[in-house]
From TrEMBL:
Keywords: Cell membrane, Membrane, Transmembrane, Transmembrane helix, Transport. Gene3D superfamilies: MFS general substrate transporter like domains (1.20.1250.20). It comes from Aureimonas endophytica. GO terms for cellular component: plasma membrane. It is a multi-pass membrane protein. The keyword ATP-binding does not apply. This is MFS transporter.
Length: 405
C-alpha cells in the first residue's frame, strides 16, 4: 500500500468537524431578536423619562445608522479573515450593548446602547449569512430569510410577555439575552472555521458597496421588493407601539408586541410556502400581498380597530417575508464564495436605508402633521413602492418570455 493511499485512509477514518450551520442560524436569530426587544419597552422608557415619539425615531435611527456603518466597512471583512474572528468581535460588542441597556438611565443611554448594538448586528449579519452558505448552500436561502424574521417575532413577543407578566421588565429580558449571547460566544470559539483567509482585509474596510459585475442586474431586480418590505418593517419596529396605543388605548405591551410579531411570524411562514417557486414569481405575489396588507392596516388605523390592523399585518407579513426570500434567491443564486458576504452586505445596506430613512422622516413629521396622518402617508409610500416592485417583476417576466420565444 502506498503512502498516499495510507494517508487517504487515515483522513477518511477521522471524522471531519461538522460545519456550524445551526449555530450560525440560531446566532442570526439571536441578533435579530435582540434588535426587536427594545420595541415593547419604548412605552416604559417614555413613561419613565418623558420623551416624545420623535425621540423614539432618533433612538431607532441611531441603531440603523450604526448598522449601516458596519455593513459599509466590515461587511465583507469575513471574506478575507474568516467568519469566526468577525463573528466573535460582533458577539462581544452585542454583549456590551446589552450591558448598556441594563444600566441606561435616560434616552442618551439608549442611544449609546443602540449604536453599539447596530454596529454589532451589521458586522454579524453579512458574516452569518455568508457562513450559512459556506456550511450548506442548499438550505442557506431558506434560513437566511427565515432566521431574521423568526428572531424579530421572538424578540418582540417574548419581551412583550415579560413586560406584562414578569418582574423587572426593563432588566429581565436583557439578563436572558446576556446568558444566550455568552453561550453562543463560547460555541463560536469551539466551532470550525468555514471560510479560508485571503488577501485584501485592510482594503476591504474602506467604505464601499461591493457588487460583482455579474451580480448587478440580479441585485437591481431584487431591490424594489426589498425596499418596500424593509420600509414597512421600520415602521413596525419603531412606531407601532405608539400607533397601537393611540388606536386602542391599551397600555399592555403584549398588544403591540403581537402586532409586530404577526408581521414577522407570518413572513416566516410565507417563506416556507414560497421556497419552491421561482424568484420572479415570488416577488410578484409578494408585492401584491404587501400592497393589499398595508392598505388594510391603514384602514384599521383610521377605523380605530386593532382587529383590522392585525388582519392587514398578517397579509402584509406574507409580502414582507416571501419578498425577502425572493430578493435573496435573486441576488445570491449566482455568486462565488469569495463575494458572498460583500454582496449580502450590499443588499442589506439598501434594505436598511429603506428601514431607517422613512422612520427618521416620520419622526420629524409627527410633531407637525400628527401621528395618524404621518402613518397614513408612510403607509401610502410603502404601497407605491410595492406596486413598483410588482410592475418590475411583471416587466422582467414579460421580457424573459419574449427572449425564450
Amino acid at each position: 500500500m502506498s503512502i498516499a493511499s495510507s494517508t487517504d485512509m487515515a483522513r477518511r477514518s477521522v471524522p471531519l468537524p461538522r460545519k456550524p450551520f445551526m449555530l450560525y442560524a440560531l446566532t442570526l436569530m439571536t441578533f435579530m431578536a435582540a434588535s426587536s426587544v427594545p420595541t415593547p419597552l419604548y412605552r416604559l422608557y417614555q413613561e419613565s423619562w418623558g420623551f416624545p415619539p420623535s425621540t423614539l425615531t432618533a433612538i431607532f435611527g441611531a441603531y440603523v445608522l450604526s448598522l449601516l456603518c458596519a455593513l459599509l466597512t466590515v461587511g465583507s471583512l469575513s471574506d478575507h479573515v474568516g467568519r469566526k474572528p468577525v463573528l466573535l468581535a460582533a458577539l462581544v460588542l452585542e454583549i456590551l450593548s446589552v450591558v448598556l441597556f441594563l444600566i441606561a438611565a435616560g434616552p442618551g443611554g439608549l442611544v449609546a446602547a443602540r449604536i453599539l448594538q447596530g454596529f454589532a448586528t451589521g458586522a454579524a449579519m453579512g458574516t452569518l449569512s455568508a457562513g450559512l452558505i459556506d456550511a450548506d448552500q442548499a438550505r442557506a436561502s431558506l434560513f437566511n430569510s427565515l432566521a431574521p424574521l423568526l428572531g424579530l417575532a421572538a424578540g418582540a413577543l417574548g419581551c412583550s410577555a415579560l413586560v406584562d407578566f414578569a418582574p423587572a421588565p426593563l432588566h429581565l429580558v436583557f439578563l436572558l439575552l446576556l446568558a444566550i449571547l455568552t453561550a453562543e460566544l463560547v460555541a463560536v470559539i469551539l466551532a470550525p472555521e468555514t471560510a479560508p483567509r485571503r488577501p485584501g482585509a485592510l482594503r476591504s474596510l474602506w467604505p464601499r458597496v461591493h457588487v460583482p459585475a455579474g451580480s448587478r442586474r440580479d441585485l437591481a431586480s431584487a431591490l424594489p421588493i426589498s425596499i418596500a418590505g424593509w420600509a414597512l418593517g421600520g415602521l413596525y419596529l419603531s412606531l407601532i407601539p405608539t400607533i397601537v396605543r393611540h388606536v386602542t388605548g391599551s397600555t399592555m405591551a403584549l398588544t403591540s408586541g403581537t402586532v409586530v410579531a404577526a408581521l414577522a411570524s407570518t413572513g416566516a411562514v410565507s417563506i416556507l410556502f414560497a421556497r419552491p417557486h421561482a424568484p420572479n414569481r415570488i416577488i410578484a405575489v409578494s408585492a401584491a400581498m404587501l400592497a393589499l396588507g398595508v392598505t388594510a392596516t391603514l384602514a384599521g388605523v383610521l377605523a380605530g380597530s386593532v382587529a383590522i390592523m392585525l388582519a392587514g399585518t398578517v397579509v402584509a407579513g406574507v409580502g414582507f417575508g416571501a419578498g425577502f426570500l425572493g430578493a435573496l434567491k435573486t441576488t445570491l443564486s449566482n455568486v462565488s464564495a469569495a463575494d458572498r458576504a460583500g454582496l449580502m452586505s450590499a443588499l442589506l445596506v439598501v434594505s436598511y436605508v429603506a428601514f431607517s430613512a422613512p422612520v427618521m422622516i416620520a419622526g420629524v413629521a409627527i410633531p407637525i402633521a400628527g401621528l395618524v396622518p404621518t402613518t397614513v402617508a408612510y403607509g401610502t409610500g410603502t404601497i407605491l413602492l410595492s406596486l413598483a416592485a410588482l410592475a418590475a417583476a411583471l416587466r422582467s417576466a414579460f421580457s424573459r418570455r419574449e427572449t425564450t420565444q
